[in-house]
Structures are given as C-alpha cells and as structure tokens.
C-alpha cells in the first residue's frame, strides 16, 4: 500500500476514506490498536494484534486485504516512528508505564524523558487524540470505563500514570472502600491497579480534592489504595508548578504509591527549585497576530465586570500579568484567559482579521497565545498542535505541568529502579 499523505494530524489520512466512519467502534479501537501494536515490544504485541489486523484489513485501501498481515513494512512504520517528534526512545527502556486520561501527553513527555516506555494510552477526547498522535505517533484508546478498553492493557508495566477527574463518592454509612467508588472514574483506575499490580502509581488531581466533600473523597481514595489494594501510599502533597521552572501559579495534588512487596517505606516529594522565572521568559519573541488583541468593546466589558465585583469587595475579574510576574493557572472556561492577559505594544497593524465589536484596543492588551500557554505548562516549542486555537487552549488548560510531573516521577524512579 502506497501512503500518499504523511499527515500526522490524523490517523485517518493513513488508511484512506473508509476509516472516516468516526462513529464506528471498530474504527475507534482499530486506530488505537494498530498504532499501539507498531510501537510495542514482542511481549505486548498480543494485546493489540487481533484488533490491529482486523482494522488493517477492513479499512486499508489495499485491494487484496484478505491476505495482509500487519507488519512494519506493510503500513510503513517509519511514518509514525520517524515523523512523530516525541516517538518512543530508542533502546531498552528503564521502565514501562501506562498513560490514563492521557490528554495531550504531559505525563508521557515527563516519563519518556526519564527513559520510560509507554505501553498503553487512553483518552476519550477526539481533539486531544489528534494532538497526542501528532506528537507520539500513537492514537490513545478511548473510554477507559469500558471493559473492551481495559482488555488492551498489557501486563508487566511498572508505573500507572493518571490525571483522573475528581468525583464524589456515595459513602454514607459505609467504610469508604473499593466498592463505594463504583460509578466514578477513580474506580476504574483502582480496578486496573488491582488487576495489573504495577510497582507504582502516580495520580494527579486538582487541589480542591483535599477538601472535596469535606475531605471524604480523598479519605476514600487513600483507604482504597492503602487498605484494599495494599500499596504503601505516603501522604499526598500539593505541588505548585511555579516551583519547578515555569512561571505559572498552578497547584495540584500528587498521590504516589508503591507495591508493598518492594519494601519501600519512605518517599520524599521533590524540593522546589531555586530558579527565578517570570512570564517574560516564555513570552513570544516576535509580535503576535492582531487576533489575540482584545477589542475595545470586549475590554470595556471586562473593566465594567471587574469594577462591579470590586464594589462588592470581591477580587473577581480580568488580570494583566506583568512581564516580571507569574501567570495565574491556565484553565478552561470561565475567566481562564481573561485572568492571564498581558501588555504587548509591538503590534503595528490594528486592522481586525476576525469579526469583533468595536476596534482593536490601543492599550497593548492581548490574550496569551497558545504557545505561551504551552510554555507555561512546560511543553517544548516543537510540540505540535494540529487543532484550532480553541482546542489548543482547552487541551493545555486540562494538561499537567510537565516539569512538576517530571520532578516527582524522577523520585518515583529512584525508588523502583534501585
């Protein structure tokens, strides 16, 4: 089969028009299975092979698909391995991990930089999958709550990574154990830990988990991990991204654990770096498009909104981050972008290129660009975003801060690799 289009923004470009039946479950599993298969070692290939072959035969443009076996030559594995900027490192890995609720791969970037190999990834958002594939040459599997998805997870990996969403548990009158987490996404994480028994896990969540449901949610999580699953779990810690080399005030709770038979009885979270960094270190070096500058009408609305809240004694409203300052957490929705405005006087042409009310403001006030958000999260400049700006902001707002993840992962590796 000759591949005419080498576009890593979509696996669909590789397998032709038939694959664009996006609602087909076989397509969903097939795209993930075939890219996982091509990047897996012999011990993991059986978990993906049947689905990979089925997908290849059904959706490739090869005329004689009935006799095709999946092979590195047949689907030109070099397309994935050579062009994906963050493809799997060459050589024997120091450890293996899985990437659950993978987003765009923040965990994966951190773990690969430490010599790890990802043997399974899962993410339900289709736009995030595009970005993940563009950078790693692998399409994540979908909904991890489905048993069909769990069946693809290989045995023998060392670390489970998951930035799972926070949900309340119905634990009234009960002990807050494994069964009490049913119906939540944490239950699926715990179920995978129970089945696969990795050496360690690394979980990330919002700071609000500490006090969620008056602390009962976190207490249930720790009880399941310690008592039901039998892992050594040190007290979780709230880690701030600004302490690890990025100018963003982003606090997240980290939970790590180790299988008890490893004999690990202590763990220290990483100490903050003594590095002074400010927004100017990630600011665009050149003048940016006029589309990022606020209109006079929009700026007027923001000012009025902030003034109303100030009159009530509230601190809500837009915020302009000085070049020598630290950005607020980049988040999706609400005032996520408006709380991270900047001044940039380099714009020369104020002619709008989008439909706006009013004119482009002349005060130099603009939104941060998606690339600036990426730098705030610790993503390198060669990280690819084959999606629209709206999706870029959403993906980055949902992502982990890579340097903080890496610093903690390094401490985990120091324990399990001894």
Automatic annotation (TrEMBL):
Active site per UniProt: 166
GO molecular function: DNA (cytosine-5-)-methyltransferase activity
Catalytic activity: a 2'-deoxycytidine in DNA + S-adenosyl-L-methionine = a 5-methyl-2'-deoxycytidine in DNA + S-adenosyl-L-homocysteine + H(+)
EC code(s) of this entry: 2.1.1.37
Domain of life: Bacteria
A single BP term in Gene Ontology: DNA restriction-modification system
SUPFAM superfamilies (alphabetical): S-adenosyl-L-methionine-dependent methyltransferases (SSF53335)
Annotated keywords: Methyltransferase, Restriction system, S-adenosyl-L-methionine, Transferase
Matching CDD domains: Cyt_C5_DNA_methylase
Family label: Belongs to the class I-like SAM-binding methyltransferase superfamily. C5-methyltransferase family.
Protein name: Cytosine-specific methyltransferase
Native source species: Cecembia lonarensis (strain CCUG 58316 / KCTC 22772 / LW9)
